[in-house]
């Protein structure tokens, strides 16, 4: 396995994903991790990430310099290169030619990093830096250059220390994955045994060992993560797993039936469905403030989940779909951020319920979770699903939430999603949904006047939901969606398309 030390680059997680795609396990530690912890990880090689700082700044993030002296191969990327350069006696300075974007790299094919690449000595690579090595460190050879960076890659004469100025982890760099694979496999000598099948096998054994014959409770939302957790745990412990699904009346069309069919009928999982639509709608009656809606829904969810848990009786473990990005301690250069929206997850269960957590996905990235789901036989429509927020339609029916308005929105949303599938666009879009606006507009249908609701449709490209771009859906597809919604859904007579990016807008409207 390989250790990635993070200096705060927006691309650090991408490095990890590329390494894992080469079937080599890796983890990310913050650059200031304790040296003892770094040693204890027993990596076969170390990658130093990029970062937004300059190594000559006073408070620039550093790493314990003993990492260069452990006898392990090291690959410094961008900021990591400058840090390695400085450690070995080079000088880093601001460059007159800052480089952002594509550049043409000429490389020496004899260097281990570039072995076996197609391209005859040149590659298009992605650069993003304002600093560069002004004076080379001693004992290093230049192994690649670009027009603006005479030292775009270098290697120590006698040791396996490599450094590159460009970013092999981004898709804009041609064969970047092969370069990283050359490092982790060819140079570090890692075996390529990190595969979905091996993960599933190992995790099933790990869960069996931890849980023994005891009971595990799992909150199932129908989303990708909790679905994969449920099926994986069911493989491991069978009927000792009990899943609880809360029908809060704020779900997508046919969601509850779909969950029951998939998990109860197909997988034969012990599934308890809490029928709580009325309680949610009663609690939400008259509530229009977005934060108040979120709090009402979140609190009631926890109360109902707890009631169901108590009905089931004693259990020793609670399963959660925590993923690796949730547990990485990243180097953050931002201060505490303001609460934009309060998100909720099952975190607020009362203290007197004594259980331990089971988090079988905590080593995985989202794309790996999807692969595990596929291997466990979950249907593609389930593993490839867009994210859906905990408060559900509660934050998509703007204004007052009533059953009728939820039903109207459910239908419009289902048509929108169906047409995205028909146009083969669903998988290129990160999230798409309809929003019911608390606005009535005038229309004309046949010879009659209508005065009904407007509906907004929203579709975004994103990689993690933190930033997003509105999706450029072709006009003819938008036209078809609008036509179908207005014709088929009673209560909607106008459709608008949301063309706001995040920031400054957020993805959800509330
Ligand atoms: P925003 O609207 O903040 O959404 O740009 C970013 C992503 O988070 C989802 N979201 C939630 N997910 N509980 C969740 O589990 C919530 O309360 C919640 N609110 C928003 C949203 O759908 C988008 O994917």
Automatic annotation (TrEMBL):
Chain residues that bind ATP: 221-227
Residue ranges constituting the GMPS ATP-PPase domain according to the UniProt record: 194-385
GO terms under cellular component: cytosol
Record-linked PROSITE patterns: GATASE_TYPE_1, GMPS_ATP_PPASE
Annotated catalysed reactions: XMP + L-glutamine + ATP + H2O = GMP + L-glutamate + AMP + diphosphate + 2 H(+)
UniProt keyword annotations, A-Z: ATP-binding, Glutamine amidotransferase, GMP biosynthesis, Ligase, Nucleotide-binding, Purine biosynthesis
Pathways per UniProt: Purine metabolism; GMP biosynthesis; GMP from XMP (L-Gln route): step 1/1
Keyword Transmembrane tagged: no
EC number: 6.3.5.2
InterPro entries found in the cross-reference section: Class_I_gatase-like, GATASE, GMP_synth_C, GMP_synth_GATase, GMP_synthase, GMPS_ATP_PPase_dom, NAD/GMP_synthase, Rossmann-like_a/b/a_fold
Active site (catalytic residues): 78 (nucleophile), 167, 169
Enzyme class, first EC level, given as a word: ligase
A molecular-function term among this protein's GO annotations: ATP binding
Pfam family, one: GATase
Function: Catalyzes the synthesis of GMP from XMP.
Quaternary structure, from the entry: Homodimer.
Name listed for the protein in its UniProt record: GMP synthase [glutamine-hydrolyzing]
Lineage start: Bacteria, Pseudomonadati, Deferribacterota, Deferribacteres, Deferribacterales
